[in-house]
Design goal:
Among the domains are: 179 residues, no CATH class; 180 residues, Rossmann fold, CATH 3.40.50; 132 residues, DNA polymerase, Y-family, little finger domain (Dna Ligase, domain 1, 2-Layer Sandwich), CATH 3.30.1490; 45 residues, MutS, DNA mismatch repair protein, domain I, CATH 3.40.1170.60. The protein is 46% helix and 10% strand. It contains 39 helices and 19 strands. Strand 11, helix 18 and strand 12 form a beta-alpha-beta unit. 35% of the residues are buried. The protein binds a DNA duplex (13 and 17 nucleotides) through helix 11, helix 12, helix 13, strand 7 and helix 20. Keywords: DNA damage, DNA repair, DNA synthesis, DNA-binding, Magnesium, Metal-binding, Nucleotidyltransferase, Nucleus, Transferase.
DNA sequence: GGTGTGTGGTAGC
DNA sequence: AATCGCTACCACACACC
């Protein structure tokens, strides 16, 4: 198809060329183009004479299937901690019978035993009745008889038994949630440990670590020798005497024993040494996880705490502390995990259309604030106003508890403003590790409960659980009761497992209503709205704020206020909008889709888009793009620093891309630039202040996962956007329209290969990139050659593994760091700003194009020319003589042509282009020149240059063929381009010095 | 009508 | 010292055919 289209295109060009035109100059007599046939012969000879190794011979005898199969046997299975997937429907019945945690309708509260022991700081609100609180705190807890008043001996005995079984239950839960169901090494087997006072890590974390590693935990000291070890960070004088006969150790004993996977001698961590009152000097070693990553070079003044975007470790240290990054990363992981599980459980079907569903929307209450607060025994969640934030002034509040909210404090507010509302606000640090642990516990409880047919991850602390009601005994009351019971059970289990984190749950039969019910339930409550008449639904949602609807944010509320409600109320409710709007009005003011969506939401109904997650969860959760956004701490001085930064971003992205086994056909750069009037340094330290954003996307002819290629494209886009380096405040790179590599192998077989491939029509298996990369070095190279020979799309090798190249261009581009040094001399890397700013936008744009192209062109051309000892391609200062005379049309879409050209190059990269094709192509270019479409030619030249560069750097193409292409670009295209530029008087001059 | 690009809104704490 | 303002995805407006 490529050839036909190309031929079509070219013939169009030649037919349009009927008007008298200067014929294109014939190639110089000594051009390699003249040698097309003979050179091809030479290549063929060279190939056939190359000696084959035994290995290569063997490989060449295999058919495609066997070859790919052979490679794939080298796959290394990726290991990954996984949550247990929800029990298969078939297993449900059995589970339900055995599992004591299934709550049937109308649950009878079990006879009360001792209260479960949440930390004193956490209290349940009255919605959790005291009978609720006092029931057995874990499903497997020993059930003991009612307690008689004053029977303390019995009380403590029960309590001990209870705690023991609770620890057992927790150990299992932790294993399932955090370790893929496998046991942890029983490091603390036979140890009974008591924790005294405040410690780091805190009591809850130590408790967890001890029980998962086989130890038992004492919540109180009773009787001598009932504990084997006491953990404490420091001891009062009195305690020192009291504990002097115990093995008192620092918390590091726990953490370091775990790190070492064996119980370390406690004496090394003893807090009390033989001599009375003398404390063994503990060099407080932070836990291993807190140590700075070893690759961060400690050299010249590098400070792990300071953020410097020019340092190589910046991305990593920034991401490590960015809550938003963590949230996004967690979400992506959860989605990936879901897909994995969903595919594994192939029997899992989305609910049949029209099935009766109960949707449970489960969400921790002010998640970060609660978890962080529970890690610090000084604070009481229900009394102290608490928030999680990094700093004290202009740092953002990630989460605040309900006490703080009662002062008007909100998430996202700066701490300084929050303190004005609530002077006693306490700021707690993040505890990302514990957030993750609690999240896993939540998901484990949801999955392990067996209640739900599907558990859809929304975020780290939030999930939507789906229960099919169809099989249930009928009667709405019963369904409602069941949902109530399930909800209660889940909330209690999560509270216990997390040592005091509360979840709220909203339950209804649509996603929207479940979400609204959740909002209503918060904090620490539940709201079940199953099987309702439309009237009661309307009554229910009437009073809820419009903001609570999914997809309705500040902007949409503003629009509604302005155009529909005319600012009648400060905080409009769903009822307000419902009474004052119609479908038509909504659609006209908010857009078609948004209007329709909102209209349905106002009646509590899901729309097509938001219910897609139920109909086709796999498609809904499948990854379609991948990106990095940095809009904090961006302060650069020169374009070179930005180039390096872009390199690192692309490196990061392609690493992820590789892990996902995907390639991208398109990259988008988004630049965030300081507003002209905004101060250089905004109020927030290293913040971005007020900014404008600009974006630009570009496509690759062949989807890629090469960092170098992507990076080059992004740098080029950056220059086009023309942001002065010092004004850059944020940068984002997105890889769009991702495709699985394994899906591409089959598609990519070139049509013309079908003719000579006798196996035409038979599918051959996808080549596994991991497997390919796992091949031993020599074999890998031979396989690569073999694959290339067969035109099987071969996976690119990761840059780190690339052997030393023999291509100067490749070396040149490989040396990211050094590159700027060499280029700086010959070509200004940024255009003079003042000069540029005074030009008309179109001209600016064109010059930037030109600039970028020449930069690229020179990179591939210079090495060959320098071998000849001649000059390099150079760019004059781009002084347009008559800028006002030129009106460039906005860029045409050379996209199709660009693709054609790339595939043309791909197919002829070894043997060189055919002279006839080139002649036709010349005519096409001449036509373009005649029409004054210089920019179009520029774009084509740029495409060719960059694609040749790609081959030069990343494929084992024959240098001779590539050289012919480069010659063509230099000797015929660039002069055409120059001529065209001169003729159209565009002011763009391209000089080419030899 | 379709397709592609750039911009903007929203979600999670 | 401060401070860690991410990221996936959809929808829209507009341009071009």
């Amino acid at each position: 198809m490529d050839y036909e289209e190309l031929a079509q295109l070219l013939s169009d060009a030649s037919s349009l060329d009927a008007s008298p035109q200067e014929p294109p100059p014939p190639p110089p007599p000594d051009s390699p183009l003249r040698l097309y046939d003979s050179s091809r012969g030479a290549i063929a000879r060279e190939r056939s004479q190359r000696p084959f190794s035994q290995q290569q011979r063997l490989l060449s005898t295999l058919d495609d299937d066997s070859l790919v199969g052979l490679v794939n046997t080298f796959d290394r299975p990726t290991q990954r901690a996984r949550l247990r997937r929800p029990a298969a429907p078939a297993d449900d019945a059995a589970d339900a019978e055995d599992d004591p945690c299934i709550v049937t309708s109308s649950p009878e509260p079990p006879s009360s035993v001792v209260p479960s022991t949440p930390p004193a700081s956490s209290r349940l609100s009255e919605s959790d009745s005291s009978s609720d609180r006092s029931r057995s705190s874990s499903p497997t807890a020993a059930r003991v008889g009612p307690l008689k008043f004053g029977d303390y001996a019995q009380y403590f005995s029960d309590k001990t038994a209870h705690q023991h079984s609770r620890d057992e239950y927790m150990r299992k839960l932790y294993q399932d949630a955090l370790n893929g169901g496998r046991e942890y090494p029983p490091i603390f087997k036979d140890c009974t440990i008591y924790i005294n006072g405040r410690t780091f890590p805190d009591r809850l974390q130590l408790h967890q670590k001890i029980i998962i590693h086989g130890g038992s935990f004492k919540h109180f000291l009773s009787g001598k020798k009932s504990v084997t070890h006491i953990v404490a960070s420091n001891l009062t004088a009195k305690k020192r005497i009291e504990f002097q006969n115990y093995k008192v150790v620092a918390p590091a004993w726990i953490t370091e024993s775990i790190a070492a996977s064996k119980r370390l001698p406690w004496q090394d961590y003893a807090l009390i040494t033989g001599e009375y009152g003398q404390q063994k000097l503990q060099i407080a070693r932070p836990p291993a996880a807190a140590l700075p990553a070893p690759e961060q070079q400690p050299a010249d003044g590098f400070d792990a705490n300071s953020l410097d975007c020019k340092q190589p470790g910046f991305l990593q240290s920034f991401f490590a502390k960015s809550r938003l990054h963590q949230l996004s990363a967690w979400k992506a992981d959860l989605r990936a995990l879901f897909c994995e599980k969903y595919v594994e459980g192939a029997h899992l079907q989305p609910p049949p259309k029209g099935a009766r569903l109960a949707i449970f929307h489960v969400d921790f209450d002010c998640f970060f604030a609660t978890v962080s607060a529970l890690s610090d025994a000084r604070y009481d969640l229900s009394r102290d106003p608490l928030a999680v934030a990094h700093g004290n002034n202009s740092s953002e509040i990630a989460s605040c508890n309900y006490v703080a909210r009662s002062f008007g404090v909100k998430n996202g507010m700066w701490v300084r403003s929050a303190r004005r509302l609530c002077p006693n606000l306490i700021c707690l640090p993040y505890n990302f590790e514990q957030y993750e642990v609690n999240s896993k516990l939540l998901y484990q409880i949801l999955a392990g409960s067996g209640f739900f047919q599907m558990i859809l991850p929304i975020s780290i602390d939030e999930a939507i659980c789906v229960k099919y009601l169809d099989g249930l005994p009928d009667g709405d009351a019963s369904a409602h009761q069941q949902c109530e019971a399930i909800t209660r059970q889940i909330r209690r289990d999560v509270f216990d497992a997390t040592n005091g984190c509360t979840v709220s749950i909203g339950c209804s039969n649509s996603l929207v209503l479940a979400r609204l019910a959740l909002k209503k339930a918060k904090p620490n409550g539940q709201c079940v709205m199953a099987s309702l008449e439309q009237d009661s639904i309307d009554a229910f949602i009437e009073e809820l704020p419009l903001r609570d609807l999914p997809g309705v944010g500040a902007t949409i509320v503003d629009k509604v206020q302005q155009h529909i409600l005319f600012e009648q109320t400060a905080e409009p409710t769903i009822g307000d909008l419902k009474r004052n709007s119609s479908l038509q009005l909504l659609a006209s003011k908010l857009g078609t889709k948004t209007g329709h969506k909102l209209h349905l939401f106002l009646s509590g109904k899901d729309d097509e888009e938001n219910s897609r997650v139920l109909r086709d969860p796999l498609d809904y959760f499948a990854r379609k793009s991948i990106s990095v956004d940095i809009n904090y701490a961006i302060r650069f001085d020169t374009i070179h620093e930005i180039d390096e930064f872009i390199d690192r971003i692309c490196e990061h992205l392609t690493t992820k891309l590789g892990e996902l086994d995907m390639v991208t056909p398109q990259v988008t750069l988004k630049v965030t630039r300081r507003c002209e009037h905004a101060p250089i340094e905004p109020a927030k330290y290293l913040g971005s202040g007020e900014c404008d954003t600009f974006s630009r996307s570009s496509r690759f002819g062949v989807p890629t996962c090469e960092a170098g290629l992507i990076s080059t494209e992004v740098k080029s886009s950056f220059r086009m956007l023309g942001c002065p380096p010092k004004d850059l405040r944020g940068i984002a790179v997105q890889l769009n329209k991702l495709e699985k590599v394994s899906d591409r192998v089959c598609q990519l077989r070139l049509p013309f290969r079908e003719q000579d491939a006798s196996s035409a029509g038979s599918r051959f298996p996808a080549l596994n990139v991991n497997a390919f990369n796992s091949l031993p070095g020599a074999l890998k190279e031979d396989v690569r050659t073999e694959l290339l020979k067969r035109k099987i799309n071969l996976p690119p090798s990761p840059p780190s593994k690339r052997s030393a190249s023999n291509s100067p261009v490749k070396d040149y581009w490989g040396r990211h760091g050094k590159r700027t040094e060499t280029l700086k001399q010959e070509m200004p890397s940024t255009l003079d700003e003042d000069f540029m700013n005074h030009l008309p936008t179109q001209i600016q744009r064109e010059i930037k194009w030109d600039h970028a192209i020449v930069k690229k062109a020179s990179s591939s051309v210079r090495n060959r020319l320098s071998r000849k000892g001649t000059g390099v391609l150079n760019l004059s200062k781009n002084r347009p003589s008559k800028p006002e005379a030129v009106k460039f049309q906005s860029l045409e879409r050379p996209l199709g042509i660009s693709r054609l050209i790339k595939s043309w190059i791909d197919d002829t990269i070894d043997n060189g282009p055919h002279i006839d094709d080139l002649n036709l192509f010349d005519k096409y270019l001449t036509k373009l020149a005649a029409k004054g479409k210089t920019h179009h030619i520029l774009k084509i030249a740029r495409t060719m240059s960059s694609h040749l560069e790609y081959h030069s750097s990343f494929t084992k193409s024959n240098p001779q063929g590539r050289q012919e292409w480069e010659e063509y670009l230099l000797i015929r295209m660039i002069p055409t381009l120059t001529a065209s530029a001169a003729k159209s008087d565009s002011g763009v001059q391209v000089t080419f010095d030899l």
